[in-house]
Design goal:
Layout (H helix, E strand, L loop, with lengths): L4 H10 L6 E4 L5 H6 L5 E5 L7 H14 L2 E5 L5 H9 L4 E4 L5 H10 L23 H11 L1 E4 L8
Parallel strand pairs: 1-2, 2-3, 3-4, 4-5
Length: 157
């Protein structure tokens, strides 16, 4: 079963409760492990620091073990980043510096499997290395993935 930590965060948002998160910019996953019990989500920043995908993976594992949602900000809109982040098990993904509604729509599409999107298939960790039934995974992944875009430019307004 896919982690439900992102659903716990969504439930708090829907209930109008305060949702607290922390930005992760350090490579050591013990940072996520240490704060997991005090926040609703962590957003792991691949845009503004030297974090590697291996470091990100350590944070994703620590977040899941700590019962906290994991959201990753990718460096740009290259679909290769979306694939690597989501196939590593991130529950959410952030697109920085969006320039147009079309760019955001394309990003959202790249984060969802057909027929809702164009995401390619390679989710070893999220599917528990093949122990989860494929159709159940696809439906849950399309429903549960948390996709957001940062509006940082005048062009998108």
């Amino acid at each position: 079963m896919i982690s439900t930590n992102i659903q716990k965060m969504r439930d708090k948002l829907r209930a109008g409760e305060i949702v607290l998160g922390a930005g992760i910019t350090m490579t050591d996953p013990t940072v996520t492990e240490a704060i997991a019990g005090s926040v609703d989500f962590v957003w792991i920043d691949l845009e503004h620091n030297a974090m590697t995908t291996e470091s990100m993976l350590g944070h994703l594992i620590a977040a899941r073990a700590g019962g906290v949602a994991s959201i990753v900000r990718v460096p740009n809109n290259d679909v290769a980043w979306s694939k690597r982040v989501l196939d590593s098990g991130a529950e959410g993904i952030i697109l920085p510096r969006s320039y147009s509604a079309k760019e955001v729509a394309d990003f959202v599409s790249a984060c969802r499997y057909p027929p809702l999107g164009t995401r390619g298939f390679g989710p070893r960790r999220p599917m528990q290395y093949g122990r989860m039934e494929q159709q159940a995974y696809l439906a849950q992944a399309n429903r549960d993935i948390f996709v957001t875009a940062q509006v940082e430019t005048v062009e998108l307004l």
